[in-house]
Amino acid sequence: MTYAEIYRSGREALEAAGIGEAELDARLLLEAVCHTSRNDLLVHGDREITEEQEKQYQGWIALRASHIPLQHITGVQEFMGLEFLVNEDVLIPRQDTEILVEEVLRELTDGSSILDLCTGSGCILLSLLRFSNDCVGVGSDISEKALTIARKNADRLGLHAKFLCGDLFERVEGKYDFIVSNPPYIASGEIDGLMEEVRLHEPLSALDGHEDGLFFYRRIIKECGDYLKRGGSLYLEIGWDQGNAVKAMMEGAGFHEVRVTKDYAELDRVVSGVWF
Ligand code: GLN
């Protein structure tokens, strides 16, 4: 079979299975199997793929057709131009979260200390370390399994970070210039309405923000004063409808310069503030 033929069969199989982004996923899976680029498919669509590649591709298409997330099949997700290992123990890094990283990078000076709560795959902390110099990074997560992935990601990127297993600040010591977090923020009642890929394959503990979704913001904002240096900043990713609530919480806790930043879809995405 040629690239073009097998791609078409993959796309049709995913469409038939009701996969939203059938075209894109069929192409990305083909590229992952054949180690090729989008260009190869366009320009060299008449090239034959090997039998082995064909078998692997059909297998991966079948997995994707059963709503297994694409990233669990390929094992990786790109974030901030870096490749992160992922599996069912971590939240798959989302493009929206790049806004948080970019906002922090605006203010981050070399040599700063950074604490990332609910670090998961480590994508936020490791990106910040990768795009700065001499910063000290600590990532905390309640899941040891998640930290196994975060440590692997640090190794693969050649970065040094310390990872602590605990409930938010439980194992954290010292004070930081930056505390960042993308905590679980989906209200428990909304979990059932999520797409199957997320609901059944991503860790519930990385999604569930309890009754109103704000559980972790309350705790982080209440406790973080003990862990922030004077003039240090807190950056939180939030859901599109949580901006005002989280901003009010931070102002109430005494943060200064509290700001809500929007994402590229013009939705509230990050709340930040400075601690004195
Ligand atoms: N910090 C990780 C991320 O943004 C994990 C977040 C989480 O598990 N809620 O992808």
Automatic annotation (TrEMBL):
Substrate binds at residues 182-185. Keywords: Methyltransferase, S-adenosyl-L-methionine, Transferase. CDD domains: AdoMet_MTases. It is an enzyme of class 2 (transferase). It catalyses: L-glutaminyl-[peptide chain release factor] + S-adenosyl-L-methionine = N(5)-methyl-L-glutaminyl-[peptide chain release factor] + S-adenosyl-L-homocysteine + H(+). InterPro entries: DNA_methylase_N6_adenine_CS, HemK-like, N5-glutamine_MTase, PrmC_N, RF_methyltr_PrmC, SAM-dependent_MTases_sf, Small_mtfrase_dom. Residues 97-190 form the Methyltransferase small domain. It holds the Pfam family MTS. Its EC number is 2.1.1.297. GO terms for biological process: methylation. Residues 5-75 form the Release factor glutamine methyltransferase N-terminal domain. Transmembrane segments: none annotated. GO terms for molecular function: nucleic acid binding; peptide chain release factor N(5)-glutamine methyltransferase activity. S-adenosyl-L-methionine binds at residues 141, 182. PANTHER family: HEMK METHYLTRANSFERASE, MTRF1L RELEASE FACTOR GLUTAMINE METHYLTRANSFERASE. Methylates the class 1 translation termination release factors RF1/PrfA and RF2/PrfB on the glutamine residue of the universally conserved GGQ motif. Belongs to the protein N5-glutamine methyltransferase family. PrmC subfamily. This is Release factor glutamine methyltransferase. It comes from Candidatus Eisenbergiella merdipullorum. The lineage of its organism: Bacteria, Bacillati, Bacillota, Clostridia, Lachnospirales.
